[in-house]
Design goal:
Blueprint (H helix, E strand, L loop, with lengths): L2 E5 L5 H13 L2 E4 L19 H7 L19 E7 L7 H8 L7 E7 L8 H8 L4 E2 L3 E2 L6 H8 L4
Parallel strand pairs: 1-2, 1-3, 3-4, 4-5, 4-6
Bound molecules: flavin mononucleotide (FMN).
């Protein structure tokens, strides 16, 4: 079985979790890099006109990703990490999901946040990845360690 950890991180918290998860389960890793990176101003959730606010207010927004992973079809399980933005997955995660055929694969979401859980996130992702199985997923504190992550991940690998 081939396992991939794919993640998007604007501030580094999710990247830390992704790195520990990757190490603890011995998976491959792919960073979902925005074609245009998010500046501090872009991430200002208090400004309704900031890039992140505009994207998250528009369910059809699909921010471009810098590069595509060509061998995605080889993977059976994809752990998909991101920060919670406005109680759900950032729009660039929707871009990612729609960029590949995940039929027959298992997608396991994980997230960091200021406290919010995943709420409707996995249902959103399931609607976009029709032939895949998207699990409920889990939020982690950015301090979550390798043992905790491996323990959680072993259900799918
Ligand atoms: C635009 C934006 C919206 C956010 N919305 C939420 C939210 O709804 N709930 C929450 O708990 N945290 C929210 N946060 C905080 C992030 O989820 C949190 O800081 C996360 O760990 C950042 O991950 P990163 O460093 O990998 O980008 C938001 C952050 C940003 C930039």
């Amino acid at each position: 079985m081939k396992v991939l950890v794919a993640y998007f991180s604007a501030g580094g918290a999710t990247a830390q979790i992704a790195a520990r998860l990757t190490k603890s389960i011995g998976a491959d890793v792919f960073e979902i890099k925005p074609a245009q990176r998010y500046s501090k101003d872009d991430l200002d959730w208090q400004n309704p006109k900031s890039r992140s606010s505009m994207e998250m207010n528009d369910k059809t927004s699909r921010p471009a990703i810098a590069e595509k992973k060509e061998d995605m079809s080889e993977y059976d399980v994809i752990f998909l990490g991101f920060p919670i933005w406005w109680y759900r997955e950032p729009s660039i995660i929707d871009t990612f999901i729609e960029s590949y055929d995940f039929s027959g694969k298992i997608i396991v979401p994980f997230a960091t946040s200021g406290g919010s859980e995943l709420n409707d996130t996995s249902r959103n992702l399931q609607a976009l990845a029709k032939g895949a199985v998207v699990t409920t997923g889990k939020r982690f504190d950015s301090s979550a360690g390798e043992d905790e992550l491996a323990d959680w991940a072993k259900e799918w690998i």
